[in-house]
């Protein structure tokens, strides 16, 4: 009788502690983030195990492996970025919300199982948008308008590409042309974008949707000769300043400055960035790879992080996650937290005329002189411009190392 009581107690203990929550079905899904209750930002993902999935945007594959189950909810934490999705599982997929607390945003989310059509293919494409486009966003607002370069490749009805601005690009966009309607979208774990336009052989007219309520008009004309302003001329040292100076902390509270021995007689690349910034992530991946492959040379990198996170502890946690995820060996210092406001950021580096973009890259020679400042970053989604950036970067570094 005593043994039976023990068995019953063990059974009850195991029953009470058994995970009865449903698990995600493995396979392809179509995810949708709702914008203003009318438009949906679609993206594709594949659940590969109970605790891992992959998000797809054109050539980009994002591995998500921080997934937990609690009661009847699934918590999906995005890699590197602060955003996360909370869902309940349904018969045909998932329903919940995407949150980004630092941005103060919440987007309703749905996912449909066994579906991989980002946009439905209906009428045959009436035109081919492949090539370069001169784009003007917010043409009717003198304060908000800005130029961009659209670069697209169309195969049948399917389209990939991106919009480049003088401060960076909108990364991997994927979509379709149905008749004369172009639709492109992306979701990278931080930002969710949708572009919808009416197109002809030589023009576009459409709207850019982002976040909860953001909607911005744009117009474009085909122009294979169009180029954005030279990214090496937009940010510079103000008159009266000859050097870049700063002193910011690492996670262990150690203050780091360019006067430290590790930078003496070295070429130094200073990266102004944020862990929340997708363009910065693209640049950081390239810089980290370059740094690791050239550790035998007289070159050092140091990143200055300007963080949305509301507390210093959260900011350093985001930095640690980025370093661990990518395998970054160079220091990332916390320059600012609680906001990424560029005016506030410029106050931390008063020798610069402005901080126009995250990222911004500052090249310093072995004598400590600032030799070039590059605003923005043309990431891998830009194709040729990304290759050109890497070639220019490596050639210029070689010149500085040879001096």
Describe the overall structure:
With 403 residues, this protein is of the alpha+beta class. It folds into three domains: 17-113, Lipocalin, CATH 2.40.128; 131-222, Quinohemoprotein amine dehydrogenase alpha subunit, domain 2 (Lipocalin, Beta Barrel); 247-402, Glutaredoxin (3-Layer(aba) Sandwich). Helices cover 18% and strands 41% of the residues. The protein contains five helices and 25 strands. The chain has helices spanning 2-17, 278-293, 312-326, 342-348, 384-402; strands at 27-35, 39-49, 52-57, 60-64, 66-70, 73-77, 84-90, 93-100, 105-113, 131-137, 146-155, 158-165, 168-169, 173-178, 181-187, 192-199, 203-210, 214-222, 247-249, 255-257, 267-273, 299-306, 332-336, 360-364, 370-375. It has a nine-stranded antiparallel sheet with strand order 4-3-2-1-9-8-7-6-5, with no helix packed on it. Strands 10-11-12-14-15-16-17-18 form an eight-stranded antiparallel beta barrel. A hairpin with a 4-residue loop joins strand 8 and strand 9 (105-113). It starts with a helix and ends with a helix.
């Amino acid at each position: 009788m005593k043994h039976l009581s023990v068995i019953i107690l063990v059974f009850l203990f195991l029953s009470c502690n058994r995970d009865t929550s449903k698990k995600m079905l493995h396979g392809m899904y179509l995810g949708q983030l709702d914008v203003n209750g009318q438009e949906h930002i679609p993206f594709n993902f594949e659940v590969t195990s109970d605790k891992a999935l992959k998000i797809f945007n054109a050539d980009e594959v994002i591995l998500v492996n921080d997934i937990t189950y609690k009661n009847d909810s699934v918590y999906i934490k995005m890699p590197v970025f602060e955003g996360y999705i909370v869902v309940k599982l349904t018969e045909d997929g998932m329903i919940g919300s995407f949150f980004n607390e630092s941005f103060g945003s919440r987007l309703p989310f749905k996912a449909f199982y066994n579906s991989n059509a980002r946009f439905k293919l209906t009428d045959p494409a009436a035109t081919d948008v492949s090539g370069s486009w001169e784009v003007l966003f917010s043409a009717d607002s003198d304060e908000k308008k800005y130029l961009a370069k659209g670069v697209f490749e169309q195969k049948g009805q399917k389209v990939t590409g991106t919009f480049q601005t003088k401060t960076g690009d909108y990364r991997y966009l994927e979509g379709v042309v149905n008749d004369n309607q172009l639709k492109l979208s992306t979701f990278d774990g931080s930002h969710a974008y949708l572009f919808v336009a009416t197109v002809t052989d030589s023009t576009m007219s459409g709207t850019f949707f982002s976040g909860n309520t953001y909607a911005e008009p744009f117009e474009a004309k085909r122009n294979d000769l169009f180029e954005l302003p030279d990214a090496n001329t937009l940010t510079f040292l103000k008159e009266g300043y000859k050097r870049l100076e700063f002193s910011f902390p690492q996670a262990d509270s150690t203050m780091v400055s360019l006067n430290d021995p590790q930078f003496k007689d070295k070429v130094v690349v200073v990266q102004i960035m944020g862990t929340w910034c997708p363009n910065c992530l693209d640049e950081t991946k390239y810089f980290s790879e370059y740094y690791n492959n050239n550790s035998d040379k007289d070159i050092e990198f140091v990143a200055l992080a300007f963080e949305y996170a509301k507390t210093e502890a959260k900011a350093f946690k985001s930095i640690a996650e980025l370093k661990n995820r990518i395998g970054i060996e160079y220091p990332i210092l916390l320059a600012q937290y609680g906001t990424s406001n560029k005016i506030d950021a410029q106050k931390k580096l008063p020798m610069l005329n402005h901080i126009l973009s995250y990222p911004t890259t500052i090249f310093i020679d072995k004598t400590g002189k600032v030799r070039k400042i590059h605003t923005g970053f043309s990431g891998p989604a830009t194709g040729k411009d990304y290759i050109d950036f890497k070639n220019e970067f490596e050639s210029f570094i070689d010149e500085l190392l040879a001096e």
